[in-house]
Specification:
Layout (H helix, E strand, L loop, with lengths): L5 H11 L3 H25 L6 H10 L22 H11 L4 H8 L8 H6 L14 H10 L2 E2 L5 E3 L1 H8 L4 H14 L4 H8 L2 E3 L1
Parallel strand pairs: 2-3
Antiparallel strand pairs: 1-2
Helix pairs in contact: 1-2, 1-3, 2-3, 2-7, 3-5, 3-7, 4-5, 8-9
Length: 200
């Protein structure tokens, strides 16, 4: 499979971003997730993992966030859980292969099940939105270590584990398994290099 280049992905972000501010928030986060994923990959030394797929998936995973900005530049937090599905729709319309589209729809939290959607009455079609491949799992996991809050910040593994605990023990168990599988990135070093705070 041929993946879009970094330049092509950046151009796609620029096309869908409703403002320079939105572009800076979302694209910078995607670049950081790519760096975190690379850091984790270096620690794994897993030659079976497709680095180009991880790069493209990291850089594209949050493109759906742009669809949640209103004309005043405010983000629709109530429907934020829809950003993955919206991103999947954007990439499908752009003719991007399903392999990459899934990085959008399957990275929320540590995975959303059909039961999660129904029980939590989430504004999504009832279905499983779960990372399946190792590349999808790695990008989803890397995403947990950086937040697009205002101002943006990095999170330690313990900070995210505490956050996700409010969604149930099964979510903590899933995150714990990812920690054991992929290890932990050097978030303290990354936070310092970006001049951002570190939670936890």
């Amino acid at each position: 499979m041929t993946f879009p280049t970094v330049e092509e992905i950046r151009a796609l972000h620029e096309r869908y971003a409703p403002s320079p501010v939105a572009f800076e928030v979302v694209y910078s986060h995607c670049e950081i997730v790519w760096r975190i994923a690379e850091d984790l990959l270096d620690g794994l030394n897993d030659t079976a993992m497709d680095r180009e797929l991880v790069r493209a998936g990291s850089l594209l995973h949050d493109i759906g966030v742009y669809r949640l900005y209103d004309s005043a530049g405010d983000l629709d937090h109530k429907n934020y859980v829809r950003h993955g599905l919206l991103g999947h729709e954007i990439l499908t319309a752009e003719g991007i292969p399903e392999t990459l589209c899934r990085f959008c729809s399957c990275h929320t939290g540590v995975g959303l099940t059909k039961s999660d959607v129904i029980c939590q009455q989430l504004p999504l079609p009832p279905a499983d939105y779960l990372a399946i491949t190792n590349e999808e799992k790695l990008v989803m996991y890397a995403d947990k270590f950086h937040s697009k809050t205002t101002p943006p910040r990095f999170l330690t593994a313990d900070a995210y584990a505490a956050y996700v605990s409010r969604f149930g023990h099964d979510k903590v168990d899933a995150f714990t398994l990812f920690r054991k599988t992929f290890g932990e990135p050097q978030v303290r070093t990354l936070a310092a290099s970006y001049g951002q705070d570190l939670a936890g």
